[in-house]
Amino acid sequence: MHKSGFVNIIGNPNVGKSTLMNAFVGEKLSIITSKAQTTRHRILGIVNGEDFQMILSDTPGIIKPAYGLQESMMDFVKSAFEDADVLLYMVEIGEKSLKEQQFLKKLKNSPVPVLLLLNKIDTADQQLLEEQVQYWQNELPRAELHPISALTHFNVKEVFERIIELLPEAPPYYPKDQLTDKPERFFVNETIREKILKYYKKEIPYSVEIETEEFVEDDEIIRIRSVILVERDSQKGILIGHKGRALKKVGVQSRKELEAFFSKQIYLELVVKVAKNWRSDPRQLKRFGYQS
């Protein structure tokens, strides 16, 4: 008997979805920062066992969209409800509800199993944990509740095994040696964007998109040329920094991580260009894969 299915992770920003996804897969597929809206796309991570294939889906954190990019991000969340065999709804200690009530209604009426994962319990005392468990059992009585800590891996193995039990009988959807549905250039883009989220403040990280124009692999080295797009000339200056020092820091840290990911020497060239108001431009959003 072989089991296969889509396991889709949803929740508000900063609840630890990407941390859990990476813990399940055993590889860093989703970027992780303390800033909201880190995940922009729907990213699949594929975990294979002898008799199962678990296709995990990390989605953007649920927000009320303010412009075109955010609307597209919420479309990825909506799609996660449509093809799920199991839904993982992640909340953190102290959280009370989703930012969009329509998604909470969908969870209450879900035709597939819902596991409610109460994350970051390592930050709570026993009384608060018991109060939170009671609250969420009242809020979503049909869901299975599991207290976890994605960061310390507490109860993560048990949740993983429970998901396998819930998967439907089916042949594998993807080749058994495949780790994700995303191409190599996607992980280059995400690695660079993670460093920008980490090293820059205010609007800069949210105004940035990365496009890898060249990815040439030889026996000894991978040569990469990536363009960092911003919305305004002033942002370009901030991103490059005095004498190019800020951009060099992003390049050095990105190269180190990419060398670890690809297990090969990396030559990385970064260029900064302006694409005015790309976050609200349907043509640009389609070009970057946010709209079909």
> Major sheet: order of its strands?
2-3-1-4-5-6
N to C succession of SSEs: EHEEHEHEHEHHEEHHEH
CATH class of the largest domain: Alpha Beta
| Terminus-to-terminus distance | 36 Å
Alpha-carbon Rg, integer: 20 Å
Helical content (DSSP H or I, runs of 4+): 25-40%
What is the mean predicted local confidence, pLDDT?
83
Q: Biggest sheet, open or closed, and with what strands and sense? A: 6 strands, mixed
Binned strand content: 15-25%
Helical run tally: 9
Shape: globular
Q: By helix and strand content, what is the structural category? A: alpha/beta
- The tally of domains stands at 2
Q: Can you tell me the residue ranges where pLDDT is under 50 for at least 5 consecutive residues? A: 31-38
Tell me the total number of β-strands.
Answer: 9
CATH superfamily of the largest domain: P-loop containing nucleotide triphosphate hydrolases
**CATH fold type of the largest domain:** Rossmann fold
Q: Write the CATH architecture name of the largest domain.
A: 3-Layer(aba) Sandwich
Structure commentary:
The structure is a single chain. The protein starts with a strand and ends in a 5-residue tail after the last helix. Strand 2 and strand 3 form a beta hairpin. Helix 6 packs across helix 8 (245-262). With 292 residues, it is of the alpha/beta class. 36% of the residues lie in helices and 23% in strands. It has nine helices and nine strands. It folds into two domains: 3-166, P-loop containing nucleotide triphosphate hydrolases (Rossmann fold, 3-Layer(aba) Sandwich); 184-287, GMP Synthetase, Chain A, domain 3.
